[in-house]
Write the structure tokens for this entry.
Amino acid sequence: MTKPLLQIHQLSKSYGAIKACDRISFDLYPGQVLGIVGESGSGKSTLLGAIANHFPIDQGNVTYTTRSQEDLEITRLPEPQRRRLMRTEWGFVRQNPRDGLRMKVTAGANIGERLLDVGVRHYGNIRTEASHWLRQVEIDPARIDELPVNFSGGMQQRLQLARVLVTRPRLILMDEPTGGLDVSVQARLLDLLRSLVRNFHLSVIVVTHDIGVVRLLAHRLLVMQQGQVVESGLTDQVLDDPQHPYTQLLVSAALTP
């Protein structure tokens, strides 16, 4: 039986009297895309940040199985080890690509920087790899020496993807990856994401308020309300036959013109 890549057990995080995440548990398997949906304030972004160990949690465990089959308890990792994990086996894609890019260095340098972090030093190899990943995310490699500030929002998001994927991570955490983009740009980005997930056998957790995003990307779905998971299951099953009143409301709102 396939072992989970990531195991979340009884994860909780409160801010004062507000329970942003309340005893959340789930498993993520290799090659699986898990969508997490809910309105603003539902706790979905807090959950993603807690998994990435961006801040201390109140209780629970986040266990990751590495390429070498070592089980790591993420919440107990020393900061240098956590940072290395985020540069190698994990990646984090932010809603605003400017938060995930260095805007004052070139597109190629943004990609190459992550390679430098893992010990690659040959300039020619770095530049070749950067060009390869620009092609993978549908950016003309001729723009390798341009600054991200000259790119559109959609291109900046694709550049952020290239920066994250260049070290071949196994797990990608995405926080509203299509937020703020025009509908046509969203569609192109979603097609690219589906292709990358399939081609590189990525495991992904994607947080979004957009039902359309999870329907296209996610194999499984968690629906969050006020810090709790109120419904979970196969994406099509949850969206086509929602059982919880809150899920029914979300789906109904998504169908309303």
Summary: Residues 183-199 form the longest helix (17 residues). The chain has two domains: 1-89+170-257, 98-168. Strands lie at 6-15, 18-28, 33-37, 59-65, 71-73, 90-93, 171-175, 203-208, 220-225, 228-234. The chain has a mean pLDDT of 94.
